[in-house]
Amino acid sequence: MSSKEKKTLKKDLEKKIKQLSALYEVGKSITSTLHLDEVLKLITRKAEKIMGASSCSLRLLDEKGEELILKCASGFGDRSYKRKKSLKVGESIAGRVVRDGKPYIINDLPKERYYKYPYLAKQKGLRSLVTVPLVQRAKIIGVLSIYNREPFKYTDEDVRLLSMFASQAAIAIENAKLYEQANLGYLNTIKTLSNIIDAKDSQTYGHSERVMAHCMDVASRLKLGEHDREVLRYASLLHDIGKIGIDVGLLRKPSRLNYNEWKIMVMHPILGSGIVEQIGFLSELAPIILRHHERCDGKGYPGRLKKEMIPLGARILSVVDAYESMVSDRPYRKALSTSRAKEELLKGAGTQFDPKIVDIFLKTINKKRR
What we know:
single chain, Hypothetical protein af1432
């Protein structure tokens, strides 16, 4: 073997090692989250990076297996992204990949008669294209496409590398879909429990779902992470689950509660947290449910906690629950106007409520009203 051939072989080996290392790192990153939208974004960004592409798109087959729906794209720009519609199986390059079950390399895209978006190729200066199938358990579920501005950019070696990446991507998509289905099952179970609670008192029916919607608005403003948002979503739906153990006559009493009745009523956060603690996937909700009637000044219940000692989720729920209760009819009083309820929140900011949460919540409802 000549010196030149050795150098070429060494260069090829170094390139291969670099690609496989990148592939390993990319595989780890796309399986680091179980949220489908995040997984799809990661796949397109990482595919673009690992293949040195100008842009990348990912399509998944619809439930009938007849159309490829564009789910995510990188490097096209928003307008181009929106113009790319669904493709039928057999249509354009992506549709042919699904129909034929094999990758396609296009080395001069503007001249490719089967490509459906020549205007996009011309606008973005795209010349080369590689599209590979996403395969899950021997079944094609979609396609992954990478584009480049250089003609004749990609080779069979690039197809093999992208196909390896697509195999990891398909696993990440399947895991995310399973997680999404499980979460939907959890949410439906929780909504059923929530409706059972609300049904005990016809005047508060729907209260928990309205509280949950407001809590999600506040969580968005606070830019809470996906996990914290989920915990708050479920906790807000089940915050009154402890009322299941309280007599209906007490819940529907048309006058204010006396001292002994009040002592029973204030047990509902303890009862509620105790219930969810016994259910494995709901146990993280317990601290929020337990503390949603605490006050910033330490005069709340059941633990007389102050300020930041109260979990953030409980501080959010406290404000939202109070507002939603004030603007709803109760057995012992009519609903307050929204302006009066806002005044009450502002009056309680710094004593009963976290002032920062009050400020954020009022901004969200003012924006909605506008």
